[in-house]
Amino acid sequence: MEAVTYERMAELQRRHWWFVARRRVLEAALRRLPLPADARILELGAGPGGNLEMLSGFGAVSALEPNAFARDTARTLVPDAEIRDGLLPAPIPFEPASFDLVVMLDVLEHVPDDAGSLAAALRMVKPGGRLLLTVPGYPFLWSAHDEAHHHLRRYAWRDLVKLIDAAGWRDIAGTRFMTLLLPLVIVARFVGRLVGREGGDDVMPPAWLNHVLREIFALEAHAVGWRVPLGVSILVTARRPGAAS
Questions:
Q1: Of the four, 86, 96, 153, 231, which is 20 to 30 A from 45 by CA?
Q2: What is the pTM of this model?
Q3: Three-state secondary-structure class, residue 107
Q4: Nearest to 131 by CA among 55, 45, 58, 237
C-alpha cells in the first residue's frame, strides 16, 4: 500500500468504528481458540500495529511488516512486541514452527501469491498450531475502496476454504461478519457506482455516527462461534496437522 494509506490507518485505528469493533469481534474469536497461557503469536502484515495490543492479551506477540513507517508506529504502541521487516510469502525472518498462533487480518487480499502465503503461514506454527484469518468477502462488492487499499481480490467462501485446505491447514472453520451493516454497505457501493462517486471509507465520521456504527458492528462479537451465512467480511480459523507439543 502507499505511504499515505498507512498514515491514514495510523490516524484512524484507535478510534474509527470499523477498527475498534473489529478488534472486539477478533478478541471474541481468540477466546474460543485452545491457546496455551504463554502462547507465542505472530501477526503477518501488522500495518501500523492496531491489533498488537489486543493480541498481546493472549501471549507474547511478534509481527512481520514490510513498511518502515508502519513498523515504527507499531513499536510506539506495543514496545515489547518484536516487529521485523519481511514479505509474504518470503522472507519471514522468524524461526519456523515456533508459534502457537499466526494471524493474518485483512492481509491476504493484498498479496499476489495468496496460496504461497498460506503455506508460509503454516510453516511458522508448531504442529497443532492455529491460524486466525480475515479477508473481505463478496467479489461483487468490489469498489474504489478496494482499489485505494491495493486489494487484489475479494473472496468467495468456497474459494477461500479450498485455498486454505490446499495450503495444508485442517479443521477449517469460519463465519461471515460485519453482517448487521451489510445492507448499508451494499447500498453505499451501488449508489456510489451509479453516481460515479465512491470512497469515503477512510473518513472519520461525526462522533455520534462513529459511536452508533461501532456499537452495531461490535454486537457481532456475541455471535462468534455461530456459522453466520451473510456478512461483508470472512473470518476463518484452522489448525496445522499434528499434535501440539
A1: 231
A2: 0.93
A3: coil
A4: 237
